[in-house]
Amino acid sequence: MKKLMAAGAVMIVAAAGVWADIASPREQWETVRMDSETVRVTLTASEVVVNATFVMTNTGEASEVVVGYPRGPLEAELEDFKASVDGKAIKDVADGPEKKAGSAGVKGGRRGPAYGGSYKFAGDYAGWKVFKVPFAEGQTRTVVVSYRTKPTPVKVKDQGDALFYSYIMRTGATWKGKIGEADIAIEIAPFAREILAVSPKPTEMVEARTDPPHTSVRWRMKDFEPDSNIEITIRVPRPAGT
Predict the structure, then answer these.
(1) CA-CA to 177 of 20 to 30 Å: which in 138, 193, 203, 213?
(2) First to last CA, the chain
(3) To the nearest 5 percent, what fractions of the chain are helix, strand and coil?
């Protein structure tokens, strides 16, 4: 790649994250932990494709957990959103309540198969995809989500037009204890002119020798409680003749 700036590149237009960890409606779930998460993201100039796998274990008694997947405040709709548990598709995926201006979290008292009564998802998010996952005592389950969305255009001071992407990790802190391990990989299609900023520092960054090149950015983490998000800013090429 031609250039890699510090993570503090100044954005003139604020942008929201486009993918995230699944969340519990409680600040800290007491019995269900996230053993691992594996996330694969493909970025193009017009689309973001996300596939995420979460392995969860219930360390307590049998329980039915309300799970939420957030949409960032400036994020486009999560298109073709699908969720499954242990390979079986979840049919009752609902749109959670949108965040009201000035509120500290997202609250809902709506009852139905996808909600299961009142709940509260904390965070500055525009809305949620909500579904239930039942756990037997001591059971480990694999939750998979996939969807498509649109990238968020921004302007970076002294750099011009760019695209900003963020993987929201803070929501993963709502489960019991620490996340066992995470493997997050972002494949950047050959539209990017250069990576302007990436944070935190990735475990590896590989540029394929193609014309134009593909870039793969990857993070591997173990035994951690997320207190920040992954962010990446990419300069887009100017139209020919400009």
Answers:
(1) 203
(2) 21
(3) 0, 50, 45
The domain total for the chain is 1
The answer to whether position 167 is within a domain reads yes
For residue 77, the number of C-alpha atoms closer than 13 Å in the C-beta half-sphere is: 4
pLDDT tens digit at each of 242 positions of the chain: 322 333 333 322 333 344 566 776 555 568 899 999 999 998 887 888 999 999 999 999 998 888 888 876 556 688 999 999 999 999 999 887 554 433 333 333 333 333 334 455 656 666 788 899 999 999 999 999 999 988 777 777 777 788 877 777 777 888 899 999 999 998 887 766 677 778 788 887 776 655 556 688 899 999 988 887 777 787 776 655 44
Q: Which domain covers residue 75, as residue numbers?
A: 19-99+106-235
Map residue 132 onto helix, strand or coil: strand
Residue 8 maps to a domain: no
Assigned domain for 241 exists? no
Q: What is the CATH number of the domain that holds 144?
A: 2.60.40.3680
